[in-house]
């Protein structure tokens, strides 16, 4: 019965996480009809419904949730064991799955990856760019990249970037005739470009600190976007004030395209870290990537 069920259990796990037969089929590389047939067969053999299906969504039943919580750790161990075996070849190989935000991908991850991959032709790296704080264990990522303050306590964290600072910026044309903000509270009188973060309760509150005093300000404006690159286009078009990583606007500040405000309220904070579960067994490929990404000041 194990041989009969193992592929169907993997299929069930992917459908339960993706909450969509369409996305799960694409991820598994099979047709939707074959996937539906596999799930029906598994439910019939077990004699219990594992998924609730509607025209718009798919979700695990209570029994499905129980099964998922039991099989996922075992499936992960099998996957890691196979990765370890593949890593014993003379040339390290295997696929490394990472989740990272847009800015960390552009500034920290990509510069290392473009030097790393040509050295190891048997290693594949899959990068998902996402602002959500994903559960890397449940979704089978090998590691994630986030700011140090966002990494859970039970994860191993490796610093891969320097400390960072944010910047409040706007174009001279937007600021023409408008009062310059002196304190973060003054931003409430400006058209601010907001960032929506899917797992942090919606729209991001701008975070400031001065002399050890933290302050979060919820700003208002005509635009809400979900990536820093979009925000940069909007602020350069003169559509409002933006709160962005300092390194992304250095050229624009130097050229005068943008003007900076509230610099004394934008203190340094820990930069990006690679994080992964403490129980994870390193494959040679993963260990090499950690070393390539490790920040050396």
From TrEMBL:
GO MF, one annotated term: sequence-specific DNA binding
Domain of life: Bacteria
Keywords: DNA-binding, Transcription, Transcription regulation
InterPro entries referenced in this protein's UniProt entry, alphabetically: LysR-type_TF_proteobact-type (IPR058163), LysR_HTH_N (IPR000847), LysR_subst-bd (IPR005119), WH-like_DNA-bd_sf (IPR036388), WH_DNA-bd_sf (IPR036390)
Coiled-coil zones: none
CDD domains the UniProt entry points to: PBP2_CrgA_like_5
Residue span, HTH lysR-type domain: 4-61
Family named by the database record: Belongs to the LysR transcriptional regulatory family.
Name this protein carries in UniProt: D-malate degradation protein R
